[in-house]
Amino acid sequence: MNKFPVAVQPYTVREALVKDYIGTLERIAQIGYQGIELGCPPEGMAISEQKAILDRLGLRVIGTHAGFDTLDFDPDLISDYLDEVNGGRYVAVSLRFNSKEDVLIKAEKMNVIGAKFRKRGVQFLYHNHNWEFVRYDGEYALDILLRETDPAFVQMELDTYWVKRGGEEPTEYLSKLKNRCPLLHIKDVEDGEDQFFAEIGEGILDFKAIARAAEEVGTKWLIVEQDQSRRDPFESLAISYRNLKEMGLI
């Protein structure tokens, strides 16, 4: 099995990022992460300065997130940022849905947005949570969204934890996304009723099997994210990185 490059979603260390932006990036790089999903720098820092810091640390911006529960953003402005920071060509979004009709309306809008991104050489992605596994007329909202969007314009950034919380097995759902899941958010889940977030390899998910499925469907990057942690978040990131390395996945 091929090894994957591994990135981090800095939502994991969001509080530290606000307090010490540069120091947080330095600590992420020191752990060993090669990439990061990152947006525009904080106020007072130019993108060129942000890029210089990332270059010094050997961290590559592999993509960014356009927002949560909104499609009201400018694809050109986001593409301009990725161009300037010399970043990857992925932009992800997460949405909420209240009906099948809502899914259909948003799918149509996503096709339009995805086409605009495609003209700029950027791939638009959808990042799931667990609420997309609600059924409308017997189908998951996520299945409807995938069916109604053009794979050329809208692909997936599947999240292993949230698939499990939605009641599905990540390997099985991932296997349906051939050539449609270039980025994979990986996070583990504790055993027990709470299904709390866990560091990679510390929970119940089989990441060797997940990695095999990811390889088969053409996933390019594994991205570690942990929404909440029982430990210091940097320790959680280090544990996840160490366990991925011990598994031979990175």
TrEMBL record:
Coiled coil: none annotated. GO terms for molecular function: isomerase activity. Pfam families: AP_endonuc_2. SUPFAM superfamilies: Xylose isomerase-like. The keyword Transmembrane helix does not apply. This is Sugar phosphate isomerase/epimerase. Residues 25-232 form the Xylose isomerase-like TIM barrel domain. Keywords: Isomerase. InterPro entries: IolE/XylAMocC-like (IPR050312), Xyl_isomerase-like_sf (IPR036237), Xyl_isomerase-like_TIM-brl (IPR013022).
